[in-house]
């Protein structure tokens, strides 16, 4: 009987172990995360919209020959400063010189015909005064003289035109400025009007930048603009001079030109940062949060909001308006007074319990050796009186 009882007990214990092994283990409790919290409140905007631009000449001319031909020489170089009257390029003038010589020959022939017609008219006039010829004959000679005079004037005009054509083989700068582009090289055959050299004229400068179509309506001609030079810590004042009436076909943005003061001698091509005063939002009260507080929930941005009563978090969708420096401006979804998680958002889940992270304050180090010396000194007996 005792052996049977032992066997039965052993079987019961084995069955208990077998049942325990087949049952599912209890799920581990979710850890309580420590998170950083900030209280939602209103803050002032610190920055406005900024755009990148560059400094250009107000007037930039593309110069080309007024006649066609082959370029034999180009004196202008990129970045060169030129003055009015400087020769920029030269065409082969041989054909035009030959045409001018032919025009001179035509003038000489027309002058000879005119002189001959004038001599005939003078002789016939004398005969008419003596009544040797009729008046009709004199009128014919007068008509011949007028025709010869007209032919001479026509030949002289053609000579003048051919002389101009020959002079047009030299491309001359009509203004002073800086060569900003060279668009043709020696040996190239160009037609009349083909741009060869581009010159930025000396004088007023413009800061040119582009704005998207959703903001161009806010910029009006005459409004103020702050222009910051990228190469120097300098801010210039400008005025919007022109706003493009149509968008660029490639970028779909609108060009804006800002007039700079003439006394501000800014080099051409200088990179600038343009801040239109129309976009200045400093002082506007908004809700701002650091970028670390946001997470992407599908196509919706959201933040974790703390429920103080249960110390759990819930996901709150928000609408983002814009950026202000390193912070994000929230347009909707939050109210002042809410407590939002700003660190640790990637490890949270809805309804999870959390604790508020508190930074450990550093304790100032204590000089233990000096403390011990002071303690021993305070416990030492007073020095013995001197012996008499």
Kindly report how far apart the N and C termini lie: 103 Å
What is the CATH architecture assignment of the domain at 53-57 and 203-279?
Beta Barrel
Order of helices and strands: HEEEEEEEHHEEEEEEEEEEEEEEEEEH
| CATH homology group of the domain at 53-57 and 203-279 | Efflux pump adaptor protein, beta barrel domain
Tally of helical segments: 4
Approximately how much beta-strand content do the residues carry? 25-35%
State the secondary-structure class.
alpha+beta
Shape: rod-shaped
Largest sheet properties = 6 strands, antiparallel, barrel
- Strand segment tally: 24
Write the SSE topology.
Layout: H1 2-22, E1 33-39, E2 42-44, E3 51-57, E4 60-64, E5 69-74, E6 81-82, E7 87-91, H2 94-129, H3 135-167, E8 170-172, E9 177-182, E10 189-190, E11 195-201, E12 205-212, E13 224-229, E14 235-243, E15 253-260, E16 271-276, E17 285-290, E18 295-297, E19 300-307, E20 312-317, E21 319-324, E22 327-332, E23 339-343, E24 354-356, H4 368-379
Parallel strand pairs: 1-24
Antiparallel strand pairs: 1-23, 2-17, 3-12, 3-16, 4-11, 5-7, 5-10, 6-9, 7-8, 9-11, 12-15, 13-14, 13-16, 14-15, 17-22, 18-19, 19-20, 21-22
Task: Tell me what the structure shows.
The protein has 388 residues and is of the alpha+beta class. Among the domains are: 53-57 and 203-279, Efflux pump adaptor protein, beta barrel domain (Elongation Factor Tu (Ef-tu), domain 3), CATH 2.40.30; 93-167, Helix Hairpins; 285-356, conserved putative lor/sdh protein from methanococcus maripaludis s2 fold (Beta Barrel). It is built from four helices and 24 strands. The strands form six sheets. Strands 3-12-15-14-13-16 form a six-stranded antiparallel β-barrel. It is rod-shaped. The termini are far apart. The model is unreliable at 379-388 (pLDDT under 50).
């Amino acid at each position: 009987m005792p052996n049977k009882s032992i066997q039965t007990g052993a079987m019961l214990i084995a069955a208990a172990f077998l049942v325990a092994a087949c049952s599912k283990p209890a799920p581990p409790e979710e850890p309580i995360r420590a998170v950083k919290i900030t209280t939602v409140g209103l803050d002032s905007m610190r920055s406005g919209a900024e755009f990148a631009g560059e400094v250009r000449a107000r007037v930039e001319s593309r110069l080309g020959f007024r006649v066609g031909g082959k370029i034999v020489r180009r004196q202008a170089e990129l970045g060169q400063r030129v003055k009015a009257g400087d020769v920029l390029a030269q065409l082969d003038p041989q054909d035009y010189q030959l045409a001018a010589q032919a025009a001179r020959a035509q003038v000489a022939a027309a002058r000879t015909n005119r002189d001959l017609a004038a001599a005939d008219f003078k002789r016939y006039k004398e005969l008419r005064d003596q009544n040797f010829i009729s008046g009709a004959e004199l009128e014919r000679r007068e008509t011949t003289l007028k025709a010869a005079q007209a032919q001479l004037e026509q030949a002289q005009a053609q000579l003048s035109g051919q002389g101009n054509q020959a002079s047009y083989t030299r491309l001359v700068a009509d203004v002073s400025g800086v060569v900003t582009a060279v668009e043709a090289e020696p040996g190239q055959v160009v037609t009349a009007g083909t741009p060869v050299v581009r010159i930025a004229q000396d004088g007023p400068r413009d800061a040119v930048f582009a704005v998207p179509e959703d903001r161009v309506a806010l910029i009006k001609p005459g409004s103020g603009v702050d222009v910051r030079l990228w190469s120097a810590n300098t801010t210039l004042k400008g005025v919007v001079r022109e706003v493009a009436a149509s968008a660029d076909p490639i970028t779909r943005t609108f060009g804006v030109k800002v007039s700079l003061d003439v006394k501000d001698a800014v080099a051409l091509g200088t990179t600038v940062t343009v801040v239109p005063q129309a976009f200045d939002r400093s002082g506007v009260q908004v809700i701002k949060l650091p970028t670390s507080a946001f997470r992407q929930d599908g196509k919706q941005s959201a933040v974790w909001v703390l429920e103080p009563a249960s110390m759990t978090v819930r996901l709150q969708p928000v609408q983002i308006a814009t950026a202000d420096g390193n912070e994000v401006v929230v347009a909707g979804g939050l109210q002042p007074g809410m407590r939002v998680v700003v660190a640790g958002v990637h490890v949270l889940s809805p309804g999870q319990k959390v604790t508020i992270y508190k930074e450990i304050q550093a304790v100032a180090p204590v000089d233990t050796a000096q403390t011990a010396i002071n303690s021993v000194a305070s416990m030492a007996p007073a020095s013995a009186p001197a012996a008499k």
